[in-house]
TrEMBL record:
This is Efflux RND transporter periplasmic adaptor subunit. Residues 136-194 form a coiled coil. Residues 117-200 form the YbhG-like alpha-helical hairpin domain. InterPro entries: Beta-barrel_RND_2 (IPR058792), HH_YbhG-like (IPR059052), MdtA-like_C (IPR058627), RND_pump_MFP (IPR006143). Belongs to the membrane fusion protein (MFP) (TC 8.A.1) family. GO terms for cellular component: efflux pump complex. The keyword Zinc-finger does not apply. It holds the Pfam family Beta-barrel_RND_2. The keyword Coiled coil applies.
Length: 389
């Protein structure tokens, strides 16, 4: 029994020593952690104090700034719209119509003024014209006979073989015959003119855009538009502009048009500005005249850049301009290297940056990067970079 009690006492003492060891280790770890935290805190304070040269100073971040100056800036307006023929000419039946025999043009062809676009059957009309031509000869023969009889009667009236009344009747017969000649000639000329209008012709020189007629088709006055043409091949772009931008655009404003799907840049100019504004969209139409190009297709879409003026203004990268509930602003480094907030009005946005219409003189130190992490009144150390031009 004594031996068993001694063994139990030995194990209890060993267990107690282990518990004390664990407790000591835990205390040591806690002390080390506290020491590390205190050391880290002291290091931060020490790093902040080193640049300022005194204890208790805070860390001063470095920020990239630029002095933008004033550079030439083109005031441009980016718009998009639809390509159309500047003067579209719908061509239809001018005469009585008939059956189409031949169509002589295809969309995309250039035609001259008066050129035949389609030929209509005229077999019946040709015979009618021939009949009227013959009637002229008949009337002319009657007129010649009446004139001869009048001449003989005038020779006999002096001898008393014919009365003056008979002479007057023969003169009237002659005049009636001459009038019938003129009527026949007029009817013939009318038939010739109608036959000349059977064919469909181009009213002016230009580019054929569409064709809505085929050989064998019977067309008449109610057939509608058979061809559409662009007069002279001239094109235009119809762009919708906001009411504020509409005030900046004048007739003659230069524009560069780029059809969708191409890199082509076509020079044009505004030739008409809408005198009204749509009450629902608050937009107006600007019509930009552009010369013909194979890349331009009426009904297609295009982008345009209108040059609404030029001047000098500060130019900043987009990262320097921020926006808030009160509008656009930039951060500048002011007196004592402290951050200041400056409200600005943004002008034209180009590939080179954002022009500032108002709010900056161009001599300020504008914070380019990290502006979102700074607040007005923060002290910073500015690092100057070159102006973005």
């Amino acid at each position: 029994m004594d031996s068993l009690a001694g063994t139990q006492s030995f194990y209890e003492e060993t267990d107690n020593r282990r518990k004390r060891t664990r407790l000591i280790v835990a205390v040591v770890l806690i002390v080390l952690a506290l020491a590390a935290a205190w050391f880290a805190f002291s290091s931060v304070k020490g790093d902040g104090a080193a640049p300022a040269g005194g204890p208790g100073a805070q860390a001063v971040p470095h920020v990239t700034v630029m002095i933008p100056g004033r550079v030439p800036v083109v005031a441009a307006i980016a718009v998009n719209g639809t390509i159309a023929a500047r003067r579209e000419m719908p061509v239809g039946i001018a005469g009585e119509g008939g059956q189409v025999v031949r169509v002589l043009v295809e969309p995309g062809q250039w035609v001259g003024a008066g050129q035949t676009l389609a030929v209509l059957d005229r077999s019946v009309q040709t015979q009618q014209a021939a009949s009227l031509s013959a009637s002229i000869k008949v009337a002319q023969a009657d007129a010649n006979l009446a004139q001869s009889e009048l001449d003989r009667a005038q020779a006999l009236v002096g001898r008393g073989f014919i009365s003056k009344a008979d002479l007057d009747r023969k003169r009237a017969t002659r005049d009636s015959a001459n009038a019938r000649v003129r009527v026949a000639q007029a009817q013939y000329q009318e038939a010739v003119a109608r036959n000349g209008r059977l064919n469909i012709v181009a009213p002016a020189a230009g580019l054929v855009l569409t064709r809505q007629v085929e050989p064998g088709q019977v067309v008449g006055a109610g057939a509608g538009v058979l061809f559409r043409m662009a007069k002279g091949g001239e094109m235009e772009m119809l762009a919708q502009l906001a009411e504020a931008d509409l005030q900046r655009v004048k007739i003659g404003t230069r524009a560069t048009v780029t059809p969708v799907g191409s890199d082509l840049k076509i020079a044009g100019q505004v030739w008409q500005v809408s005198p009204i504004v749509n009450m629902d969209t608050r937009q107006g139409t600007v019509r930009i005249a552009i010369p013909y190009s194979s890349a331009l297709r009426p009904g297609g879409f295009a982008d345009a850049r209108l040059v609404a003026g030029s001047g000098e203004a500060p130019l900043l990268p987009e990262s320097a301009v921020q926006s808030g509930p009160e509008g656009n602003f930039v951060l500048i480094v002011g007196k004592d290297d402290k951050v200041e907030r400056r409200a600005v009005k943004v002008g034209t946005v180009t590939d080179g940056g954002v022009s500032i219409a108002s709010g900056l003189a161009g001599t300020e130190k504008v914070i380019v990067l990290a502006g979102a992490f700074l607040n007005p009144g923060d002290k910073v150390k500015p690092v100057l970079q070159k102006s973005a031009q």
